[in-house]
Design brief:
This protein has one domain (about 1-120): Glutaredoxin (3-Layer(aba) Sandwich), CATH 3.40.30. The two termini are about 20 Å apart. By secondary structure, it is α+β, with helices and mostly antiparallel strands. Helices cover about 35% and strands about 10% of the residues. The protein is built from 5 helices and 4 strands. About 5% of the residues are buried. The radius of gyration is 17 Å and the shape is elongated. The strands form 2 sheets. Strands 1-2 form a two-stranded parallel ribbon. The protein has a two-stranded antiparallel sheet with strand order 3-4.
Amino acid sequence: MHERYKDRVRFQTVYIREAHPLDEWQMESNEKEDVCYRQPHSLGDRMLIANDFVKRFRYSIPLAVDTMDDHAEKLYAGWPERLYVIDTRGVIVYKGEPGPFGYHPEEVESFFSSRLAALSSQGARPGTQNAR
C-alpha cells in the first residue's frame, strides 16, 4: 500500500509499547518471525528496538517512537495495533478497529482508492485539497 500511494499519501508508523514482549506475554508467532523483544524501560531501549526492526525488515515507512508515558498510544488507543487516516486538516477520516482482529489494511487501501479517485474526478491534486 505504501509503495502504491506514497506519492499521494504521507504515511507514518508510531512504535508504541510492545504488544507481546518476552518478559510479559510472548506469542509463538513472534518467535517464528524472530520478533522477540523485552518491554523497553527507557526511550533509548524503545529507539533501539525501533531501529532494529527498521533495519532487519527493511521497513521503508517513516517510523516515530512513542514517549515512555505512551502519549500517542493513549491519544489514539493504538495498542496493540490500529490504523488511522488523518486528512490535511488533522481530522480523523478513517479509524480502524484495534488489532489484531480489527486490523484491516485492505479497508484503508479501499478508502484511499475511492477517496483519491473522487479527488481526481473533481480535478483536485491530493495533498492540495482536503478529502471529503
